[in-house]
Write a structure and sequence with these properties.
Blueprint lengths: L3 E4 L3 H8 L13 E4 L4 E8 L2 E9 L20 E3 L13 E7 L1 E6 L6 E6 L6 E11 L5 E10 L12 E2 L1 E2 L2 H6 L2 H6 L10 E5 L3
Parallel strand pairs: 4-10, 5-10
Antiparallel strand pairs: 1-2, 1-7, 3-4, 6-9, 7-8, 8-13, 9-10, 9-12, 10-11
Length: 203
Amino acid sequence: MPGRLSIMSPLEELAAACGAPVPEEAGTWQPSDDAAPGEALPVLVRDRADLHLSEMRWGIIPVGRVNARGRPVMETVINARAESVFDKSAFDGVRRAVVPVNGWFEWTGKVRRKVRWRIGAPDRPVMFFAAIYDVWTAPGGREVPQVATLTVAPNGDVEAYHHRMPVILDRPEPWLDGDEAAARALLRSAPDGLLSVVEDPRR
C-alpha cells in the first residue's frame, strides 16, 4: 500500500506517457523520489472529451463523512480499498483519476530497524495507478482538489512486503472512460512478474 511515491519523470514525460498535453500553467508540483501524503501530485483526469494533468493534494477528506454525533470526520484517506470504493457512502460523488508514477516504497522489519524497499516495473517506466478524486471545501471556502489511490490484495511480487498494493492499470482510458461494471473489472492485482523490488538505502 503506497505511503511514499517516486515520481521522478518531468512533467513533459508524464504528459507524453498519459497521452495528455503539458499543462500551460505551472503548479507547485516538482519531481520527487519521496512524495508523501499531503503533498501535491500530478493527476490525470478526463475533462469532457480531453485528458489533462491536474495538480491535487494526495489525501481525500471524504465529503459528507460524519461520525455518530453527526460531526464532520476530518480523517484523511490516502489509499482507498478498491473492493468497497463504489459502495461506501464516504466516497459518494467521487470521480475517477489516474496517478502516473515511477514506483513506490514499502517498509519491512521492526521499528528503528525497518528496511525500505523500492517497487517498480522495469518494463513500464511510468505506471498508472487507479485513483479517485473530488474537491474538498476547506474552512473559509477554499476549494482543494484531492486524490486517493486505490489498493487491492498483493500479487506474488509484493506479498512479502505488504498486504495491499496499488491498482496498476495497463492504460488510463478504460478506467477513466468505462462504465461502472467495466471499471470494477479493472480493480485487480497486477500479474506476477511485472514488478521488481529493490532495497533502498534510505530508511
